[in-house]
Amino acid sequence: MAVLAQLPFACVLAVAVWIRIVAVRGYPAPHWTGDSPSYLQAALDLRPGETRPSGYPILLWMLKPFHSFTVMVAVQHAIGVLCGVLVYLLVWRAGRAAWPVGPGGDAGRLAWRHLVPGLLGAALTVPVLLDSYQLALEHLLMSDSLFTFLLLAAVTAALWRRRATWWLGALAGMLAAFAAVTRSAGLPLVAIILLGMLLRRAGWRALAAAVIAFVLPLGGYMYWFKQTYGDFTVTRASSIWIYGRTAAFADCAKIKPPPELRIMCPKDSNPQIAPAFAVLWTPDSPFRQIPGWITGEQANRMASEFTKDAIEKQPGDYARIVVRDTWRSFDWNREPYPTPWTWLEYRFSPGESWDDEQALVAAKYDPAGGETKVVQPWAGRMLTYQSHMSMPGTVLGLVLLGGLVLALPHIGRRGTRWRWFGPVRHWGTGALMPWGTSLALLVIPAATADFDYRYVLPAVPFACVALGLALIPSPRRVREDPVDGPGEGQDDDAPAAEKSLSA
């Protein structure tokens, strides 16, 4: 029966692997966006990127000996499958700890203690494994799929045991650091992991190990950056992106910038193009008139000063824009944003073509990679699948809402007293970490750059884990060893037969 309980997830996993095989056979080369050439060039040169962290180019560099874009996209799809596996493992383990089998292996009528954790876990992997938007993201020559996996693996390590051991804390910190040097949005997320570990009473050794394991790889990357460019930092454009964010609301009549900064005032542009995109990449961009473009020291300094003034003078307008663009994540339909063409890059298309710049860089990585982009009938099958298996943003909103409010029924009773803070404790020690990570992944881009549909998808696995942990009761038995004591290595989320004390 225990093996049969894994059958629902095995079916979901089989479909997930099959559709990814279809995607790779139909589109043997990755999809490109405007950022893809810089990632690929950084991999060819093995150097840190000036505007974006280079964790993803390091992966591309490791795959370079294969000289195959097909191998690249296959690996990225495998990473996407691993994300689904991690979601399942976290939910299934929580369910097994909450509903342990009885004496003699009694699983209850209809063996529900075996079946429910597997059914719930399998259902929560569907948005991660079978959504066509997720598949398209995995097919992009971009960092998002690797970033999502590394961050999810960090959260998994932190949640794996009720009280994390020092080595699990170190693993969580190290993976969080790798995520931070893959996408800079990962830098502040280690705080959520540490908070979750603290609420789960991880102990000072686990927390210290997580901090040290986070700082050392991050510091090593920054030292590499300093050796290359002379600055001890992660990128040379730390203020450029948030300056683009201010373009949506900045009013120079209110800001009254000094003469040197007036060039940074956003200009009227094509209304079909988002202001953040316009001030960075179109002819209206002020950086076209600044020496060194967006990677120059002067551009970064001027962007920082203008951004500070804009937010100080218009805090309400800034907050309104952040809320508006965070809310876009939950729209039912996708709109042509930030440009009429960008949002279409996140879908499989009937045809593919590369411009001269892409073809030149691609030939250095995979000499045969530019020949065939679309292969029938596989591409047609992928397009048919895409038209039926796309999750609207509203569903993500409902999953996030469920991960917050479904902890409320966990009001317990001990003896004659009601435990009114039971839901808070249950949510804080379980769903908080993945839920907070999911929400942060939606808010951070809206607050520091701009809304983009590819920024929404990394939040999905964490929202699914949070929903599962909110639904599932806390383990019925909790060991009361001293924190970081001699028995620290025992798994507090193991089945109740392995526990010794009642909660």
Summary of the model, kept short:
The protein is mainly alpha-helical and 503 residues long. It has helices spanning 7-26, 36-45, 55-63, 69-98, 112-129, 132-138, 144-159, 166-180, 190-199, 204-229, 240-246, 252-255, 275-281, 297-313, 315-327, 356-365, 378-388, 393-405, 422-428, 432-448, 459-471, and strands at 412-414, 417-419. Helix 15 packs across helix 20.
| Cα separation of the termini | 28 Å
Helix-strand pattern, N to C? Answer: HHHHHHHHHHHHHHHHHHEEHHH
Measured on Cα atoms, how large is the radius of gyration?
24 Å
How confident overall, as mean pLDDT? 87
* Major sheet size, sense and barrel closure: 2 strands, antiparallel
Main β-sheet, spatial strand arrangement: 1-2
Indicate the multimeric state: single chain
Look at the helices and sheets and give the structural class: mainly alpha
Helix fraction, binned, reads: 55-70%
Tell me, briefly, the overall form: globular
Strand content: under 5%
How many helical stretches? 21
Unreliable sequence segments? 477-503
Number of strands: 2
Membrane topology: Multi-pass membrane protein
Region (Disordered): 477-503
Protein name: Glycosyltransferase RgtA/B/C/D-like domain-containing protein
Organism: Actinomadura violacea
